[in-house]
Protein backbone atom coordinates (compact mmCIF):
# COMPACT_ATOMS: atom_id res chain seq x y z
CA UNK A 1 0.00 0.00 0.00
CA UNK A 2 2.79 2.37 0.93
CA UNK A 3 4.72 1.37 -2.19
CA UNK A 4 1.66 2.07 -4.37
CA UNK A 5 1.14 5.47 -2.76
CA UNK A 6 4.80 6.44 -3.18
CA UNK A 7 4.72 5.29 -6.82
CA UNK A 8 1.67 7.50 -7.41
CA UNK A 9 3.23 10.49 -5.70
CA UNK A 10 6.72 10.18 -7.13
CA UNK A 11 6.17 8.66 -10.59
CA UNK A 12 2.68 8.33 -12.02
CA UNK A 13 1.50 11.89 -11.51
CA UNK A 14 4.73 13.20 -13.05
CA UNK A 15 4.40 10.86 -16.05
CA UNK A 16 0.77 11.91 -16.58
CA UNK A 17 1.81 15.55 -16.49
CA UNK A 18 4.58 14.89 -19.01
CA UNK A 19 2.22 12.94 -21.27
CA UNK A 20 -0.39 15.72 -21.08
CA UNK A 21 2.26 18.24 -22.12
CA UNK A 22 3.25 15.97 -25.02
CA UNK A 23 -0.39 15.74 -26.15
CA UNK A 24 -0.70 19.53 -26.01
CA UNK A 25 2.51 19.89 -28.00
CA UNK A 26 1.38 17.35 -30.61
CA UNK A 27 -2.05 19.01 -30.86
CA UNK A 28 -0.38 22.14 -32.16
CA UNK A 29 0.91 20.24 -35.18
CA UNK A 30 -0.87 18.61 -38.07
CA UNK A 31 -0.09 14.98 -37.24
CA UNK A 32 -3.56 14.00 -35.97
CA UNK A 33 -2.77 10.30 -35.88
CA UNK A 34 0.18 10.80 -33.54
CA UNK A 35 -1.86 13.21 -31.40
CA UNK A 36 -4.69 10.66 -31.14
CA UNK A 37 -2.18 7.95 -30.20
CA UNK A 38 -0.59 10.13 -27.50
CA UNK A 39 -4.04 11.10 -26.19
CA UNK A 40 -5.06 7.43 -25.98
CA UNK A 41 -1.84 6.72 -24.10
CA UNK A 42 -2.60 9.59 -21.70
CA UNK A 43 -6.12 8.25 -21.11
CA UNK A 44 -4.73 4.78 -20.37
CA UNK A 45 -2.25 6.27 -17.89
CA UNK A 46 -5.01 8.22 -16.17
CA UNK A 47 -7.25 5.13 -15.99
CA UNK A 48 -4.43 3.05 -14.52
CA UNK A 49 -3.67 5.77 -11.98
CA UNK A 50 -7.35 6.05 -11.03
CA UNK A 51 -7.38 2.30 -10.36
CA UNK A 52 -4.27 2.58 -8.20
CA UNK A 53 -5.82 5.47 -6.26
CA UNK A 54 -8.93 3.36 -5.73
CA UNK A 55 -6.79 0.45 -4.49
CA UNK A 56 -4.92 2.72 -2.08
CA UNK A 57 -8.20 4.13 -0.74
CA UNK A 58 -9.56 0.62 -0.21
CA UNK A 59 -6.35 -0.33 1.55
CA UNK A 60 -6.57 2.71 3.82
CA UNK A 61 -10.18 1.87 4.66
CA UNK A 62 -9.12 -1.67 5.54
CA UNK A 63 -6.28 -0.34 7.69
CA UNK A 64 -8.73 1.89 9.55
CA UNK A 65 -10.92 -1.14 10.26
CA UNK A 66 -7.93 -3.16 11.46
CA UNK A 67 -6.80 -0.27 13.63
CA UNK A 68 -10.23 -0.02 15.24
CA UNK A 69 -10.36 -3.79 15.80
CA UNK A 70 -6.92 -3.68 17.43
CA UNK A 71 -7.95 -0.82 19.69
CA UNK A 72 -11.02 -2.79 20.78
CA UNK A 73 -8.82 -5.84 21.35
CA UNK A 74 -6.47 -3.75 23.48
CA UNK A 75 -9.35 -2.55 25.64
CA UNK A 76 -10.78 -6.07 25.97
CA UNK A 77 -7.39 -7.56 26.81
CA UNK A 78 -6.70 -4.89 29.40
CA UNK A 79 -10.05 -5.55 31.10
CA UNK A 80 -9.53 -9.32 31.10
CA UNK A 81 -5.99 -8.95 32.38
CA UNK A 82 -7.08 -6.62 35.18
CA UNK A 83 -9.86 -9.05 36.17
CA UNK A 84 -7.44 -11.99 36.23
CA UNK A 85 -4.85 -10.05 38.21
CA UNK A 86 -7.46 -8.97 40.79
CA UNK A 87 -8.77 -12.50 41.14
CA UNK A 88 -5.28 -13.93 41.53
CA UNK A 89 -4.43 -11.39 44.22
CA UNK A 90 -7.75 -11.79 46.04
CA UNK A 91 -7.83 -15.59 45.92
CA UNK A 92 -4.16 -16.55 45.82
CA UNK A 93 -4.62 -18.90 48.78
CA UNK A 94 -6.96 -21.06 46.67
CA UNK A 95 -4.31 -21.75 44.06
CA UNK A 96 -1.66 -23.07 46.43
CA UNK A 97 1.64 -23.98 44.77
CA UNK A 98 0.20 -23.15 41.32
CA UNK A 99 0.10 -19.49 42.32
CA UNK A 100 3.72 -18.88 41.22
CA UNK A 101 3.04 -20.44 37.81
CA UNK A 102 -0.13 -18.41 37.38
CA UNK A 103 1.73 -15.24 38.33
CA UNK A 104 4.42 -16.05 35.75
CA UNK A 105 1.71 -16.69 33.14
CA UNK A 106 0.07 -13.33 33.89
CA UNK A 107 3.44 -11.61 33.62
CA UNK A 108 3.87 -13.11 30.14
CA UNK A 109 0.34 -11.98 29.22
CA UNK A 110 1.23 -8.49 30.38
CA UNK A 111 4.39 -8.50 28.25
CA UNK A 112 2.40 -9.69 25.21
CA UNK A 113 -0.23 -7.03 25.86
CA UNK A 114 2.42 -4.31 26.11
CA UNK A 115 4.04 -5.49 22.86
CA UNK A 116 0.67 -5.67 21.06
CA UNK A 117 -0.19 -2.16 22.26
CA UNK A 118 3.19 -0.77 21.20
CA UNK A 119 2.98 -2.34 17.74
CA UNK A 120 -0.58 -1.10 17.23
CA UNK A 121 0.33 2.43 18.28
CA UNK A 122 3.35 2.32 15.94
CA UNK A 123 1.05 1.29 13.08
CA UNK A 124 2.56 -2.19 12.62
CA UNK A 125 -0.79 -3.97 12.44
CA UNK A 126 0.51 -7.01 10.60
CA UNK A 127 2.99 -7.90 13.36
CA UNK A 128 0.46 -7.00 16.05
CA UNK A 129 -2.01 -9.46 14.51
CA UNK A 130 0.55 -12.23 14.93
CA UNK A 131 0.72 -11.77 18.71
Would you write up a description of this structure?
By secondary structure, this protein is mostly helical. Helices cover 92% and strands 0% of the residues. The chain has one domain. It has helices at 2-27, 32-90, 92-95, 98-122, 125-130. The model has no long low-confidence stretch (mean pLDDT 88). The two termini are 22 Å apart.
Residues in β-strands, percent: under 5%
Q: Gap between N and C termini, in Å?
A: 22 Å
N-to-C SSE string, H for helix and E for strand: HHHHH
Mean pLDDT, nearest integer?
88
For the largest beta-sheet, the strand count, sense and barrel status come to:
none
- Report helical residue fraction: over 70%
The best one-word shape is rod-shaped
- Evaluate the radius of gyration: 28 Å
Query: Structural class from helices and strands?
Result: mainly alpha
Pfam family, one: EzrA
Membrane topology: Single-pass membrane protein
Main location: membrane
Subcellular location: Membrane
Topology overview:
Elements lengths: L1 H26 L4 H59 L1 H4 L2 H25 L2 H6 L1
Helix pairs in contact: 1-2, 2-4
Question: What is the compact description of this entry?
Answer:
This protein has 131 residues and is mainly alpha-helical. The protein has helices spanning 2-27, 32-90, 92-95, 98-122, 125-130. The model has no long low-confidence stretch (mean pLDDT 88).
Keywords:
single chain, 131 residues, mainly alpha, 0% strand, rod-shaped
